[in-house]
Amino acid sequence: MPKAQSVRPLAIPAISTRLLLTAAGVVIVLLALAYLVAFDQGALSRSGMYMHELMHDGRHLLGVPCH
Amino acid sequence: MPLTPSFGRILLAGLLAGVLAGLLAGTFAYFAGEPRIDAAIAIEQQNALAHGEAGADDELVSRDTQKHVGLLLATSLYGLAMGGILATAYTLLRRRLRTGSDSRAAIGLAGAALTGVILVPFLKYPPNPPAVGDPATIDQRTISYLAVLILGLVAIWAGVLAARTQTQEWRRATAGLAGFLIVVAIAYVLLPTINEVPDNFPAVLLWKFRIASLGTQTILWTVLGLAFAGLLNRQAVSDTAQRIAAKS
Ligand SMILES: [Zn+2]
C-alpha cells in the first residue's frame, strides 16, 4: 500500500513563450465558447437566434443577464 | 520512460471535470430551477396579453427542448469552458501557489473563482427570471455584470497580495479578508444599482429562482474543483507508479 506522502506532486511544465502562447490560444477558444452560451445572439454561432433560444434557460440559471 | 510535464493532460483533466460539473449543475438546475422559469414565463405571457401584445407563439425552440436538451447543453458547454480555463490557470499559477498539495492548489483556485465570479456578482446583480428586466437596458446590464465579475477576480487577487504581506496566520487571514472586502466595497459603490423587478412580481418566486441559480453555479464550481483535483491526483499516482517501475 503506497502512503499518501509517497505520491509526488504532479510535474508542471516550465513557463515558456510557447506555453504562454498555447495557453492564450486555449483561453481565447474557451472564452468564445462561454460567450456562445452566455451572450451570443447569432453572430458567433451563425445559426440566427437558434442557439441563443436553445440555451435560454441555462443562461438565466447561470446568472447571466438575458432579457 | 521519461515523464515530460505536459499542459495537455492537465487541460484534459480540467475539460473532463468541467463537463461532469456542468452536467450535475444542469441536473440540479432542471429540478430546482425549471419550475421557477415556467412560472415566470407564465407571468410574462399574462403581462403581454394584458398589454394587448401577442403571446410568444412564434417560438424558435420549444419550451420542452429548452428545458431538457438546451439547459444541459448550456451548463455542460459552460462547464467545459470553465474547466479548461481553470486548468490553464492552474498550470500557469501552480508554482506561485504556496502549498505542497496539488489538491489544495486546485480546490483553492476553484474556490477563488466561485467567490470572485459567482458570489461577488450574485450579491450586486442577483440573477433574474424571465419577466424581470427591461429589454432596453440589456446592454448596460451585461456590461455591469462583466465589470463586477472582473472586479470580483481583482478582489481575490488583492486579498492574496494583502495576505502575503503578513506572516502570522491570523494576520494573514485578516489582511486577506480586508484586501478582498475593500475592492468589493469599492466595486459595489461605483457600479450602477439595477433594480428592474416589477412591483407585482411574486417575491417568493423571485427568491426561489435566485436560490436555484446560486445553487446551480455553486454546484458547477464545487464539482469542478473537486473533480479536477481528483483527476490530477490520479495522474500523480500513476506517475509515481511509473517512476517506481522505472527504478526497479
Ligand atoms: Zn431570458
TrEMBL record, chain A:
InterPro entries: CbtB_put. The lineage of its organism: Bacteria, Bacillati, Actinomycetota, Actinomycetes, Micromonosporales. Keywords: Membrane, Transmembrane, Transmembrane helix. This is Probable cobalt transporter subunit (CbtB). The chain crosses the membrane at residues 20-39. It comes from Actinoplanes regularis.
From TrEMBL, chain B:
It comes from the Bacteria. Keywords: Membrane, Transmembrane, Transmembrane helix. The chain crosses the membrane at residues 69-93, 105-123, 143-163, 175-194, 214-233. InterPro entries: CbtA_put (IPR012666). This is Uncharacterized membrane protein, predicted cobalt tansporter CbtA. The lineage of its organism: Bacteria, Bacillati, Actinomycetota, Actinomycetes, Micromonosporales.
